[in-house]
Each structure stands twice: as C-alpha cells, then as structure tokens.
Amino acid sequence: MTTTWKKLLQDESGTELVEFAISAMVLFTVLFAIIEFSLSMYAYHFVTSAAQAGARYAIVRGADWTPACSTSAPPSFTMNYSCNASASDVSNYVRSLVTTGLDPSKVTVTATWPGTTPDCTKNCTACSPVNSQGCLVKVQVSYAFSFVFRPAKISGLAFSGTSEKTIQQ
Q: Among 25, 57, 112, 125, which is 20 to 30 Å from 141 by CA?
C-alpha cells in the first residue's frame, strides 16, 4: 500500500493542465484589463475632441452667420447647418460624432454663451447678443464610462472635457 501512495505522490500527469489553467487565467485577466483601459482612454479622447468640435461648430455659427434659418428647431440627432448655433444644435452635433464603442445616451453636452469677451479679467465687456462676434462660447461634454468587465468596487468613470473659444462669425 505504501508503494501505491508513493507512485501517486510522484506521478506528475495532469500538472500541465493545472499550470495551463493558472497561466490562462492570468493571461486573460491581463488581456481584458488592457482592453478595458483602451476603451476608457478612447472615451476620454472622444470627450476632449468632441468638446473642441462642438465649440468650433458654435464659433462659426454666431449672430453674424449669414445664411437665414430655414427651420426653427432641428429634430434630434440632425443638424441645421443654415442657422445660428443654439445649445440644442451644438448638443445634436456632438452626439452625431459618437462612434461605435460609446453609448450616445451617456453623452451629456452643455453649450453656454457667457455673454462676455475673452479678456474679461482685465476689461469685461458684455456682449449683445451673447453669440455675437468676439464673444465667448463654452462647450462641456461629459461621458459616463462603465466597465464591461467590472472590477471589484469600481462602478465606472466620469470623463469630462471643456472647450472655450471666441466666436468668429
């Protein structure tokens, strides 16, 4: 009976399977962590560039924008390129930029016209109308990123990007 136990204790068949299972678990954990990190950086990059694109959309469609408006309010997720930019136009434009991998319902866009010129710290001049040439527009884009494979105690991340530009037209 002792020889049978010795043989069983010295038998190494099946150890490769256990080693592979442990190695595969570590490999897939690292692989999915890299994928999650890449997706979160993609969301962060989208938020910052979408804020800049939304501000650019607003600065070229100020009070001096020459084409006359053809409709009063565009439907959701469509842009009215022939009107002065409103907060809903900027929001619709930014949401149209959302690509595969991000959820458009988690994108929040806030466009404001402070009604002042950029040098307000030294010489604060009020703008009338607030979207006239030389005045500021501020666009803030937020995205609530949630992990696909949620790590323990982490529900998600909130990314935010802001762009403030001077209206050109």
A: 125
Do 152 and 33 touch, CB atoms closer than 8 A? no
Q: What is the dihedral of CA 111, 117, 120, 126, to 10 degrees?
A: -90
pLDDT tens across 117-161, in order? 666 655 566 777 777 777 888 999 999 988 877 766 677 789 999
Report which secondary-structure segment, H or E, holds 23.
Answer: helix 15-59
Burial state string for 38-51 with b = 16 or more CB within 10 A and e = fewer than 16: ebbeebbebbeebb
C-beta of residue 167 within 8 angstroms of C-beta of residue 137: yes
DSSP 81-105: TTS---HHHHHHHHHHT--TTS-GG
Structural domain count of the chain? 1
**DSSP assigned state of 73:** S
CA distances (Å), origin 112, targets 12, 37, 70, 105: 70, 32, 23, 20
Is 6 part of a structural domain of the chain?
no
**CB-count burial class (<10 Å; 0-12, 13-18, 19+) for 165:** middle
Would 7 be classed as within a structural domain?
no
